[in-house]
């Protein structure tokens, strides 16, 4: 009697049956699968939410709506977030928010924070604007996309964004390291965020993500883990001039490094004990 199953169906069935084995035994497979599920979930959620955010184009409060649904991606990839210092967020105050940048997973931590941050938008690289429904939804939610290669245009966009921050009592989130770096330290800061804060006399709000000890891009490791996100007290720029730029940048980075090391220490220690 001839088999009622075709070769593609048999191949698919075999692949599905081997998935649990691959997930358990191969850290490379687990790494790529988790990122795929993360991106797929956020992309699908953004697509579904497009009709909602279209009602209020370029409104940063759309990010609060998106975060309530997108934050569940953290459960899918096995990341737990702990928020500290959220009492420092004042919804009636505008800030230039700066944070360390370790991975695209940072956005999941921000999804946890948005309901409390309220009116907060982000400076992002222009290529993300063309990332399908995610990019379009992000643009509709008021994200500021800049092309770092076009310096003059980027400065103009940042200045316009800062003016809107003041006018609407919004927060502008910037990653001053300029690129993702997950090597257990905080890289030197670019000065753009500090120029904006000093020129507009807006406080700097430092936010620190603890080390992603569970993630290693070189070995393709992505295990379950916990991240502590600490919001530090805002740093006033009242009375500062551009002569204070280096002082402000160094002071903010030193504070953030201290908190980064302290918040990461116990988490890394727990990992070593578990191993």
UniProtKB/TrEMBL annotation:
GO terms for molecular function: 1-acylglycerol-3-phosphate O-acyltransferase activity. It comes from the Eukaryota. Belongs to the 1-acyl-sn-glycerol-3-phosphate acyltransferase family. The HXXXXD motif is essential for acyltransferase activity and may constitute the binding site for the phosphate moiety of the glycerol-3-phosphate. GO terms for biological process: phosphatidic acid biosynthetic process. It comes from Euphydryas editha (Edith's checkerspot). The chain crosses the membrane at residues 6-23, 35-56, 128-146. This is 1-acyl-sn-glycerol-3-phosphate acyltransferase. Its EC number is 2.3.1.51. Keywords: Acyltransferase, Lipid biosynthesis, Lipid metabolism, Membrane, Phospholipid biosynthesis, Phospholipid metabolism, Transferase, Transmembrane, Transmembrane helix. The keyword Lipid metabolism applies. Residues 95-212 form the Phospholipid/glycerol acyltransferase domain. Pathway: Phospholipid metabolism; CDP-diacylglycerol biosynthesis; CDP-diacylglycerol from sn-glycerol 3-phosphate: step 2/3. Pfam families: Acyltransferase.
């Amino acid at each position: 009697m001839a088999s009622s199953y075709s070769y593609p169906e048999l191949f698919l069935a075999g692949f599905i049956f081997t998935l649990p084995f691959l997930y358990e035994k191969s850290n490379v497979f687990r790494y790529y699968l988790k990122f795929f599920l993360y991106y797929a979930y956020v992309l699908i959620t953004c697509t579904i939410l497009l009709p909602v955010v279209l009602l209020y184009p370029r409104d940063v409060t759309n990010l609060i709506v998106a975060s309530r649904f997108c934050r569940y991606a953290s459960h899918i990839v096995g990341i737990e977030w702990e928020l500290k210092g959220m009492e420092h967020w004042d919804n009636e105050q505008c800030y230039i928010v700066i944070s360390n940048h370790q991975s695209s997973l940072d956005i999941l931590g921000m999804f946890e924070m948005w309901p409390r941050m309220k009116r907060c938008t982000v400076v992002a690289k222009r290529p993300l604007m063309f990332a399908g429904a995610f990019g379009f939804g992000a643009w509709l939610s008021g994200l500021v996309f800049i092309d770092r290669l076009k310096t003059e245009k980027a400065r103009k966009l940042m200045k316009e964004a800062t003016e809107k921050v003041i006018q609407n009592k919004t927060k502008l989130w910037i990653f001053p390291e300029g690129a993702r770096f997950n090597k257990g330290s905080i890289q030197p800061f670019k000065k753009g965020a500090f120029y904006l804060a000093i020129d507009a006399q807006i406080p700097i709000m430092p936010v620190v993500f603890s080390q992603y000890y569970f993630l290693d891009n070189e070995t393709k490791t992505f295990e379950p883990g916990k991240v502590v996100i600490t919001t530090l007290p805002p740093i006033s720029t009242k009375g500062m001039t551009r002569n204070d730029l280096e002082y402000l940048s160094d002071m903010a980075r030193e504070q953030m490094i201290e908190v980064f090391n302290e918040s990461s220490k116990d988490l890394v220690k727990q990992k070593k004990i578990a191993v």
